[in-house]
Design brief:
Layout: H1 2-17, H2 23-71, H3 75-101, H4 107-124, H5 126-141, E1 149-152, E2 155-162, E3 166-171, E4 176-180, H6 181-186, E5 189-191, E6 198-206, H7 212-224, E7 236-242, E8 247-255, H8 259-279, H9 323-334
Length: 335
């Protein structure tokens, strides 16, 4: 038994000793690689020259596209188009350089590999590519421009820049909002400065006994004299409702579309119309409410003729009871 156990390790040692490293084959491979590299040096030099030429060509194409967009007043579209064409030119130059270095690789193989890679990249960067496509469509169709005041996704402000991924707006309180282009392209967007005029309105409540026509004429005249109110279209006042506290008149006027103009003119119109109505004695009522307190603990409970919680009617009706009297009477009983 001892001889058998000792024989196995000796056989393994002998077999390991018989394995020799073929150093000559390794050096032959390294020498073959070096020879191949030196044979490819001319191709590599030509490929580098091609890359440099395409790099300058890409810069030239980008400059031409950017200049063309600027000449047409489409700076953002020119910048985006220049960036896309620059990268496309560089990719074509790189593919051509690869075919020069490795002649066995055909352009068809590169395009096939590029197609498979494009599918993989499309799945990995779906949101980025979606925003980029939406940004290009926004720049081409131009529903709004840089400097326009828009409302999108609950955010309102002035468009600062339209990029391939997002649109940047500056809110009226001095903050920046970055909105993805896909959200802007698929959702509703309100462009406040799309036209050269914008209408504002305000509801004014006058007394029920006041003359509606005179009040309307006075409001139109006063609004027309306010700074910033446009004369064409002229202001108008429309009777809008007969409410519980008075009659409602809706005053409308037009201004420049910018937010600053709309806000400041609105303040001037409200101030001047109020002063004019007040000077003419037009009633500007406040909502009034009457609260009746009913005492359900007296002997007269259920007899409505004996309960006078409000203003007394004419005739022999009893005088109205007052809470102060009831409190005073109760205090005197306790004392």
């Amino acid at each position: 038994m001892e001889d058998e156990t000792e024989a196995a390790p000796r056989e393994e040692i002998d077999s390991l000793a018989g394995v020799d490293a073929d150093t000559g084959n390794i050096f032959e491979k390294i020498d073959a690689w070096a020879d191949g590299f030196f044979r490819l040096l001319p191709n590599i030099a030509v490929a580098i020259v091609v890359l440099v030429l395409f790099w300058f060509l890409a810069r030239g194409v980008a400059w031409l596209v950017r200049r063309s967009g600027k000449a047409r007043g489409r700076d953002n579209l020119g910048n985006v188009g220049a960036s896309l064409l620059r990268w496309l030119t560089l990719i074509i130059g790189f593919m051509l350089a690869v075919t020069i270095v490795a002649p066995s690789i055909s352009p068809g193989d590169l395009f096939a590999g590029l197609g498979i890679g494009s599918v993989a990249i499309g799945f990995a960067f779906k949101d980025i590519l979606q925003n980029m496509l939406a940004g290009i469509l926004i720049l081409i169709r131009q529903p709004f421009e840089v400097g326009d005041q828009i409302v999108s996704g609950g955010h309102e402000g002035t468009v600062e820049r339209i990029e391939t991924r997002a649109t940047l707006i500056k809110t009226y309180d001095g903050r920046r909002v970055v909105i993805p282009n896909s959200d802007i392209y698929t959702d509703a967007v309100v462009v406040n400065t799309a036209f050269d005029k914008r209408r504002s309105q305000y509801d004014v409540l006058i007394g029920c006994s006041d003359d509606i026509d005179e009040a309307c004429a006075l409001m139109i005249e006063t609004a027309g004299k306010c700074e910033g109110v446009l004369s064409d279209p002229a202001p108008e006042a429309i009777p809008w409702g007969m409410d519980a506290d008075g009659n409602t008149i809706r005053l409308r006027w037009w201004t420049q579309p910018a937010r600053a103009d709309v806000v400041h003119v609105r303040g001037r119109v409200i101030r001047d119309v109020y002063n004019a109505l007040d000077a003419k004695g037009v009633d500007l009522p406040y909502p009034t409410r009457m609260v009746l307190f009913h005492d359900q603990t007296e002997a007269t409970d259920g007899d409505r003729t004996a309960q006078r919680e409000g203003w007394p009617v004419k005739g022999d009706s009893p005088a109205p009871r007052r809470i102060e009297d009831a409190i005073r009477k109760g205090a005197s009983k306790e004392s």
